[in-house]
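Our example pasted here:


***
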Amino acid sequence: MARRFHPKSTPRENLHIFFISIPWKLIVILPIMIVLAVPTFIYGAHAGSGVLSSVTNMFYTLSNVSNEPTPTPLPAFPTVLPRVGVIEHTIGEGDNCDAVLTYKMNMLGASEIFSDTNPSTVQQLGKDVGLDCHRLQPGMTMHLSPQYPLVALGGVLLKIEPATAREVLPTPLIKVQSKEEYAPDCSHGCLLTVRITPEVKVRLTVHTTLSLHPGAWIWTQARLARKAIPNFPNYPYADPNASLNGMALQACDFQANDTHDDDSLACSQLDPNSIDTDGGSWLFGVAGSNALDHWHYKIKAPAGTQILVWLQEHGGRLSYHAGDPIYRYDPATRLYVKL
């Protein structure tokens, strides 16, 4: 019996058979569906993303979600500034300059700072108090200044500079971080420009490990600049006529925003001073919540009162004790009088 041979179909024939097997209605409908489906999908995807974004924003708004912390509002500037001034004292029977400074001003080292072995220092003291210390008579009045006085300040940090000159960088220059990202190392000292009123700025030398940025609110006590007297390097008094604006001060008891630097210089570490010898320090300040109240000294005085107060020193910390000397500035007499 002879075998039958079935010739294989060619690719062209196979393609023809495939098209014949497809219903003609599908061939007509498929292009129409493609033409309509593609634009519809693109439009729907775009509209859907917009709806999803709107819904997401609505939920974020309702839940008050914010990725950025709410900045802490800064305290208000004080309406008046601390004022350097003097106390008036009437000479009593048997008084001498050393005794008055020791018992009236708590200046236990007065005889060493103003010494007859260095007559120019005693002569300068006579100019300061307005009397010849070798010719005191009962009933005379003298003006007494606080020795190595401190001042209590708060304000906005404007600028941070290194306390020492910067080293010259070798070439090629190395790109450093921007000022906004860079927090300088002030552990070995920085020079800060701080605005303490809208019109007044001071310059603070500070040693701190805190991270400082412009715009921070600074709280500090600082030693007032003393009057420069030739050949008298440890002269103890501030110049009552000097302006705080632009004054260079040494900071202690330092705080930035809500963080106190417990490792910053204690006021007794400032040089020179007589805090350890005297057992405390005189402080100029202003009563009020945005001034002296920050240190919780429990001083009862109307806000805005310019104060001179004696603070006792214990373990490197200064504190006010009821009954210690405290004075208020009297504009009529231009003197500090008992509060």
